[in-house]
Amino acid sequence: MTDLQFENVSITYRSSSDRGDVVAVEDVSLDLPAGATLGIAGESGSGKSTLIMSALRLLPKSARLDGRVLLGGQDIRELSFGQIRAVRWAQASIVFQGALHSLNPVREVGQQIIEALEHHSKGTWTTPQKRRDRMFELLAEVNLEASKSSAYPHELSGGQKQRIMIAMALACEPDIIIADEPTTALDVIVQKQILSGLARLVAERGISLLMISHDLAVLSAVCAKLAIMRHGRLVEYGPSDEVCLSPQEDYTKQLAGAFPQIGDPESRLNPRTLKPAEVVRAEPFTMTDEVVLEAKDLSVSFDTRRGRERAVRGVDLQLRKAEILAVVGQSGSGKTTLARSLLGLQEVEAGSQLSFAGKALPKKAKELRAFRQKVQMILQDPAGSLNPKRSVYEAVVEGLKVQGIKDREYERVIGALEAAELTPAEDYLESIPQELSGGQRQRVVIAGALALDPQVLIADEPVASLDASVRGEILSLFLALKKNFGMSALIITHDLGLAWNIADTVAVMKRGEIVEYGEVDRVLSDPQHEYTQELLAAVPRLGSQSLVRNE
Amino acid sequence: MSANTPAEAAPGPSSNEPNPRGSETRGSIPVVDGAKLVRERRLNNAKKNWALFRSDVPALIGAVVLLFFIVIAIAAPLIAPASMLDVTKQLDVPRYAPPSLDHPLGTDDLGRELWVRILWGARVSILVGVAATVMSMIIGTIMGLAAGHFTGLFGGVIMRIVDFFIVLPSLLLAIVLSSVLERGVFTIVVAIGLTSWASTARIVRSQTLSVESRLYIERARILGAGHSHILFRHLLPAVMPLVLANTTLTVGGAIIAESTLSFLGLGDTSKESWGTILKNSMDVSAATSGYWWYVLTPGVAILLVVLAFTMVGRAFEAIINPALRSR
């Protein structure tokens, strides 16, 4: 068995650009004894990925490592290239971040697992037949059918691909598995399967697990010990339950609070953030009975290779003035298609009825344009939603130009940016998207929608690609928009905590159908449909190592 | 444009107000011309790109060479009067004189100075090269954008037209066009322009397709944008740098195509061009008779201009695509 120790590790990236040398990790000491589980939490840029890459000497040449990284008592810097190759995969292996793109798209996944075995045969899997058998053994271990070995990556779902990656990591019976955000792109149910699979392997095989994530709850579900990193430094380190449930540092508290506990009244309609959006009205708007956007018997189908597939089936929805409605479901449940059809971006089947303010959705281009001024949508990825060459001013003013609104252009832009809490707005006007952080970009996108003075905002996973601390800020902004301007919002998400944080009503979608629909307090506290119960059960809870102990 | 106060209602490009941001106070929204901010940022970007271009030595050399040829082409009548090309006035000049102090680049079979012919030839060669390229770029960009943006039948039909022009042997088509149409410089421009746009259209289309799938195009649609907004505000600016870089690279090809057509005797025989000089030299078998300067001079001139365009074009490419810079 092998221990992994970081002793006063500092890592600096040398750079010839204006930024000079960048310190990614500063004086971190951590210890992972054989058979232990350790989680490292932190936001993007905290240096957590850099730290674990150093364990296998996978850092780029421009990185300088100070301090010692000991693997099985040996300093990895003293190993020759041949020795480090033997260590990689055979002693310690990595499940990479974005594993969905780490598979070769033109080779069968079974072959790719065998490839790892060929490089590190260690005298055990010497013949092709033995390697094949081992490959099937591994697939069984990660709960995949043997027939999947001849599938190409694009034929597998995100969760299946992630399991293939884990099978590859297990291939040579390593002592340590390093998992870099293994479940970030997956929805709660698949996440639970992956995490409990990892937890089971750790428990049965005595493998040590080093996992990093931005989500404390995910880490605490599997790991016994937790380390919190920020700006390259270790902020807090200790047993998982202690760090999660009684955090000492403010930063840890903030991270722990970012993902709310469903059922916790304190976080109900109150996303936790250090920078809450201001509510300026003395009597904030609350949900009314006036229906603004309505769908009746909405169905949408796509032509696919396997014939016509119905993505949305007979959905009835009502969005009232100053209501925040969360549509929750797994990926592939038709949430995004639903949102697109509410905007008239997607052709719907005959018999579907969509209406806005009592009138049917227009079909003609000109009327549709006027309608879009009233109903705006915010897309999933703020980085992609902004033209990289155009400044903040141009991005926000775009809607006004398109809609032909000419008066008070500058004031409207400033007003929209301030409503989106990007202040002082004047300082951002000339920035281009790459100069902004993820949260700021999302605010610009929201401001672009607000500039048109819409009555309804539809948001598709507005916080999925943002850091935990930014998440709270954006969510509180949605709440403030509702309270200040009486705006209605339909928010699409796979995150039940989001619904708990800000929504008035929630609709749970499964395979294109709404299975449960009602007030958040009722649906999430007392779910009737078994799918809602399943979703709720899959949400990782802080502390308790729920997944390990349940197994 | 905000025109709430009389002061702002008459916007002047050379307004002498200080930094608009400096005079504002928090709380009240100052009256600022938003479009001006945008213009300033673009100007700054252009300055940055110019600095990058200046730091590229081959590109500067190329630009100097180009400038030289353009200046001599424009100033040809001043440097060497047209009478120097008149065969009847060259009777006392030796024929086939090798390069010497009296005849810097040598003389041809009719006693004309080659440097004078190169000077006058530059006018047609560069004019045709640039004009044909501009024509091919305009057609290529329009067709490529249309093929990439419009889906369905319309896009399909356009793409088949592009395919048709790609598989046509372009030299053959150019020969046919220039022999069917009236002889003249314009005919050569049309012949080259019509045969070389298809590859540009392909490049523009693929770039359009990749930009088209970005979220910000979807966002523009959500804001209510129609085809014209998406085409001219997002797609055209995104493909323009590519088209510009491609332009400088294509000019070289067009100059060579012009020379080829003239060499084959399909150009305007009444006008000097580098291709015509090459053709004359072949007619008198200059290469085999030892009159090397007759062949080499126009050849080197073509080489220099094409090389210069390529070097400038590569620098443009590197500015657009920073990933190329270190290669």
Automatic annotation (TrEMBL), chain A:
<keyword id="KW-0067">ATP-binding</keyword>
<dbReference type="Pfam" id="PF00005">
    <property type="entry name" value="ABC_tran"/>
</dbReference>
<feature type="domain" description="ABC transporter">
    <location>
        <begin position="293"/>
        <end position="536"/>
    </location>
</feature>
<feature type="domain" description="ABC transporter">
    <location>
        <begin position="4"/>
        <end position="256"/>
    </location>
</feature>
<dbReference type="Pfam" id="PF08352">
    <property type="entry name" value="oligo_HPY"/>
</dbReference>
<keyword id="KW-0813">Transport</keyword>
<keyword id="KW-1003">Cell membrane</keyword>
<dbReference type="InterPro" id="IPR003439">
    <property type="entry name" value="ABC_transporter-like_ATP-bd"/>
</dbReference>
<keyword id="KW-0547">Nucleotide-binding</keyword>
<dbReference type="InterPro" id="IPR003593">
    <property type="entry name" value="AAA+_ATPase"/>
</dbReference>
<comment type="similarity">
    <text>Belongs to the ABC transporter superfamily.</text>
</comment>
<dbReference type="InterPro" id="IPR027417">
    <property type="entry name" value="P-loop_NTPase"/>
</dbReference>
<dbReference type="GO" id="GO:0005524">
    <property type="term" value="F:ATP binding"/>
</dbReference>
<keyword id="KW-0472">Membrane</keyword>
<dbReference type="InterPro" id="IPR017871">
    <property type="entry name" value="ABC_transporter-like_CS"/>
</dbReference>
<dbReference type="InterPro" id="IPR050388">
    <property type="entry name" value="ABC_Ni/Peptide_Import"/>
</dbReference>
<dbReference type="InterPro" id="IPR013563">
    <property type="entry name" value="Oligopep_ABC_C"/>
</dbReference>
<protein>
    <submittedName>
        <fullName>ABC transporter ATP-binding protein</fullName>
    </submittedName>
</protein>
UniProtKB/TrEMBL annotation, chain B:
<keyword id="KW-1133">Transmembrane helix</keyword>
<feature type="transmembrane region" description="Helical">
    <location>
        <begin position="124"/>
        <end position="145"/>
    </location>
</feature>
<keyword id="KW-0812">Transmembrane</keyword>
<dbReference type="Pfam" id="PF00528">
    <property type="entry name" value="BPD_transp_1"/>
</dbReference>
<feature type="transmembrane region" description="Helical">
    <location>
        <begin position="291"/>
        <end position="312"/>
    </location>
</feature>
<keyword id="KW-0472">Membrane</keyword>
<feature type="transmembrane region" description="Helical">
    <location>
        <begin position="57"/>
        <end position="80"/>
    </location>
</feature>
<feature type="transmembrane region" description="Helical">
    <location>
        <begin position="235"/>
        <end position="257"/>
    </location>
</feature>
<feature type="domain" description="ABC transmembrane type-1">
    <location>
        <begin position="122"/>
        <end position="313"/>
    </location>
</feature>
<comment type="similarity">
    <text>Belongs to the binding-protein-dependent transport system permease family.</text>
</comment>
<feature type="transmembrane region" description="Helical">
    <location>
        <begin position="184"/>
        <end position="204"/>
    </location>
</feature>
<protein>
    <submittedName>
        <fullName>ABC transporter permease</fullName>
    </submittedName>
</protein>
<dbReference type="InterPro" id="IPR025966">
    <property type="entry name" value="OppC_N"/>
</dbReference>
<keyword id="KW-1003">Cell membrane</keyword>
<dbReference type="InterPro" id="IPR000515">
    <property type="entry name" value="MetI-like"/>
</dbReference>
<feature type="transmembrane region" description="Helical">
    <location>
        <begin position="157"/>
        <end position="178"/>
    </location>
</feature>
<dbReference type="InterPro" id="IPR050366">
    <property type="entry name" value="BP-dependent_transpt_permease"/>
</dbReference>
<dbReference type="InterPro" id="IPR035906">
    <property type="entry name" value="MetI-like_sf"/>
</dbReference>
<dbReference type="Pfam" id="PF12911">
    <property type="entry name" value="OppC_N"/>
</dbReference>
<feature type="region of interest" description="Disordered">
    <location>
        <begin position="1"/>
        <end position="29"/>
    </location>
</feature>
<keyword id="KW-0813">Transport</keyword>
